[in-house]
Write a structure and sequence with these properties.
The chain is an all-alpha fold. The protein starts with a helix and ends with a helix.
């Protein structure tokens, strides 16, 4: 039990360290996640036009109007499903290896395979996804 508590503390500490780095840059953890996972297609402001858009055969949705297109309510559950891979998004590629989610999946697998620490990887990934969704919600027009 003591080892699990130490491991949990380590996960929290690593997220806190990333958050401190983000704050030093004047950013949030969610913004860093967005910049490293989403901006290449959706652009820095969420409106599309990232450097990879010309490589895609489908148009990139404007993330700034998710709330507007959902009767003024930010579609949290739908956004979560898209990010974690439960919702099929053609531009993100097949569910077994979406372009944007490779980093999340590697981290979760790495943490899940640590024997007695199985299951802790999901919490780590969930925290990163929630931070990302929080940032996307700030992009709304």
């Amino acid at each position: 039990m003591k080892a699990k508590a130490l491991f949990s503390f380590g996960v929290i500490l690593s997220l806190a360290t990333v958050q401190v780095f983000a704050q030093e840059r004047g950013a949030s953890l969610g913004q860093l996640e967005y910049e490293s996972s989403c901006a290449v297609c959706h652009g820095a402001d969420g409106g599309g036009g990232g450097p990879y858009t010309e490589l895609l055969t489908v148009s990139v949705p404007d993330l700034r109007i998710l709330q507007k297109n959902n009767k003024g309510v930010f579609p949290f559950e739908r956004v979560y499903e898209v990010i974690d891979g439960r919702a099929e998004v053609r531009a993100h590629g097949p569910r077994d290896m979406p372009i944007w989610g490779d980093r999340y999946n590697k981290d979760a697998v790495e943490l899940r395979t640590m024997g007695e620490y199985a299951g802790y990887g999901e919490g780590y990934v969930r925290a990163r996804i929630l931070a990302l969704i929080s940032h996307i919600s700030t992009l709304q027009k």
